[in-house]
Please model this.
Amino acid sequence: MDRQDSLRKWIFSALLVAAGVLLSPLFSFPLGATRAFPLQHMINIFLAVLCGTRFSTSAAFGTALIRNILGTGSLLAFPGSMIGAFLSGYLYSKTQKLWCAVLGEFVGTSIIGGLVSYPIAALLMGSSKGALFYVSLFSISCGAGCVIAFCVLKSARLIQTELLKNR
Model:
């Protein structure tokens, strides 16, 4: 990857971090001990597919960090979004299949991120909820974001394919 391409991807990632932070108060809702933010999962998949694993994971970390500093996020945003972003990018890089990116985001965020969030919530946030509680919460938020991302990216590919056929 040349320097100019890398710079474009970092700039695009930064723009999506800014969008994630700015849109979080508008498109999030309280869900138990955390806040559901489906657009974060959509952003993770966009970056995994369009830029790659390190960009999606870095942007997930940046968005979670800024949202926590501003008080619009929770500590649980770190494991949930970062694991999902990483797995989404990793699976997409190995298969080049959109459904693999979506599956990676869902499994990484909902199942793995939910299980990792349990001890964080218990130790640092004083929550007495069980691990499956977090898995179910993350599944709701992540599932919505995954559906949005899949529909948008699949539509974009269909449009692109039709445009190439008409040339």
